[in-house]
Amino acid sequence: MKNYLPILQKSPLFSDIGETELLSLLDCLGGTLRAYPKGTAVFSEGDRPTHLGIVLDGEIRITRTDYYGNRSIVAAVKAPQVFGETFACAEVESLPVDVTAATDCTVLLIGVDRVLNPCCNSCSFHNRLIYNLMKQTAAKNLLFHRKLEITSKRTTRDKLMTYLLMTAKDQGSNSFTVPYDRQELADYLEVDRSGLSAEISKLRREGVLTAEKNRFTLL
Fold it and tell me: Which pTM was predicted?
């Protein structure tokens, strides 16, 4: 676990918790390190959510599949981000999403009951952990609202441009990369891939943007 301490210190879940306190806290939480090859399931739809996870290296994807088999990417999660906390804290009976390793990755899984119920010592840094978890959950809700703002647009063009403009603002540049290939971007925007490719080509011809694989420049 000590090998991953620099990554864990950057996790929003452990914000403002010192190294010594973090080591004690990790011992208290009793987390489990798991390695997942690319394409394997971390959590599956229908599982009972009892754990949250922290990505230590690699990347995972959270996806939702509808009745007809259409996949939508909910989020891409990289180190040192947290995932699964919203569903575990809500105590839902079963997960409505799949969590899959997008690359070979290592994850720290922590039982949410160990997070929400401090040990008998009631250490101050555990109280800080609970506070951080509340902030993280609130921030995650804002991200879900952001995706809803994008996917609620009526046309593929509007969805794409809303997403690209938000990403450009986040990265502070009109030239940026997105964390998805073309099929994954279509899944995130909840549109047909061929329609998305056609719209990108049209925007190129109109001089609105340039695109090379997952790199875009807004003109």
Answer: 0.78
